[in-house]
Here is the input.
Amino acid sequence: MRTIRIGSRASRLALVQAELIIDGLREKFPQYQYEIIKIITKGDKILDKTLDKIGGKGLFVREIQKALIDKEIDLAVHSMKDMPADSPEGLMLGAITKREDPRDVLVTKNHIPWSQLPTDARIGSSSLRRQAQLLNLNGCLKIEPIRGNVETRISKIETQTLDGVILAAAGLNRLGLTEEIAHYFNTEEFVPAVGQGALGCEIRKDDEELYNILQELNHKETYNTVMAERSFLKVMEGGCHVPIGAYGKKVGEELQLTGMVGAPNGKEIIKETEIGGFDDFVEIGRRLAEKMQSKGAKELLEEVANKDPKDRLIKE
Here is the structure.
């Protein structure tokens, strides 16, 4: 009887997400054994610097991917928003499970709604994508960099005297913290990160048995829309270093993909939408990227990427 070893970050949210995958597998394939292997990533170890200063989103997956390549684990469970646009040689995405709520949300002190926050409210976030869109909505906000797991970031409302923090709805929902949410930003005004709310199952390309098993968990609508977002990201060559987002959804029998690139100060936001056949997700992502590049998105990203990281986050 095969034991399938699942690699996961050690945070409570990551372990909850790994258990969700195991629950789905165990329901379909009770004949296998399942074991979670906790892996501490560089992104989990360094909490006193923003991601753009220490290497970007790949810091949350590289050690797990190495364990997969070295056959220390059989399956890596990732938050899709943490994954770079390409998998390393020899690895592949075996499945993307059904997406949770993709929206960004606001958690505030005393549950004060967005509309009642002070004009110069202090909001915690180290995401340049969130910063750009927040300041585009209200240029007077004070954005404070914060790192840590979900619970730690919520606690910083008190410890850093913040008015609120921006988080992903999916993580709060999975942790049973939905009641903490004071405001949901709709995906039209506030474009999510690529893959936000979705979980990816990464495996070795030569593991045909596990690939076939994972097809029972793969959610086609989520897979197509997230892969369209990743196609856009790959052409744009974006990551945590720059304010970039994309969100795909099924509309009738078509796939609608919206992309966003912004200046960290929120004064310039480039946002476009592309629609096409539901299975043409790679092409839709490419076309959207080219459309946005024609509007100056590439130059804006390059300008941001070339700035000193300390100058990208707005300070008081």
